[in-house]
Amino acid sequence: MSSTPVEARRDNDLLSQALKLVRRHRGMTAAEVARAMHMALRTYERFEAGGSRLNIDYVHRFALATNSDPYAIIMAVAIASPELAPRCADNKLITILTVGSQRFDHLLGDRIHHLEGRAVIAAVCDMFDELVAHSDEQELATRWLMRGAADLSSTRPKPGR
């Protein structure tokens, strides 16, 4: 790990970068997003540029307009990783975690405060370790299929003349 301190970034700068990354991931222009959010282009541009305070309503409207994960956009700011927002745009990972948290809160209610920190940390680490393992298995399967398809096509006659 580097001993050089990471330059602190403002929340608005992180939000701006996350929004731009998602918009570009979707191949949309600022005008298209503004129109889909039912707002003036200038208002949208100010929002995307981080020119105002974090507006949760705007984040949700943006996510709806871009079919992305509003909670991933907010989390991207919280963990200083704007790249999280486009990474979760399709699978809605952080929304899924938020829905799970809501369900957990509903099921346990006040009993949540009795949970030991160690047990919570272990459960969360186990969950993420399982997701990493699944991702690794998926990557192996994808590479296997690509190699197999290449091998098959190399033994087939070339189409055409």
Task: Write a structural description.
- The protein is mainly alpha-helical and 161 residues long.
- The chain is 68% helix and 0% strand.
- The chain is built from 8 helices and no strands.
- The chain has helices at 11-25, 30-36, 41-48, 56-66, 70-78, 84-87, 93-108, 117-155.
- α1 runs antiparallel to α5, α2 (30-36) packs across α3 and α4 packs across α5 (70-78).
- The chain is flat and about 65 Å long.
- The N and C termini lie far apart (57 Å).
- Mean pLDDT is 92; it is low at 1-6.
Which segments are poorly predicted (pLDDT under 50) over 5 or more consecutive residues?
Answer: 1-6
| Global structural class | mainly alpha
Sheet having the most strands: none
**Overall radius of gyration:** 21 Å
Rounded mean pLDDT is: 92
The amount of beta strand, in percent, is under 5%
The count of helical stretches stands at 8
Helical percentage? 55-70%
Overall form: flat
Counting DSSP E segments of at least 2 residues, the number of strands comes to 0
Order of helices and strands: HHHHHHHH
List keywords for this structure.
mainly alpha, 68% helix, 161 residues, flat, disordered N terminus
What topology emerges from the helices and strands here?
Layout: H1 11-25, H2 30-36, H3 41-48, H4 56-66, H5 70-78, H6 84-87, H7 93-108, H8 117-155
Helix pairs in contact: 1-5, 2-3, 4-5, 5-7
Quick overview:
The protein is built from 8 helices and no strands. It is mainly alpha-helical and 161 residues long.
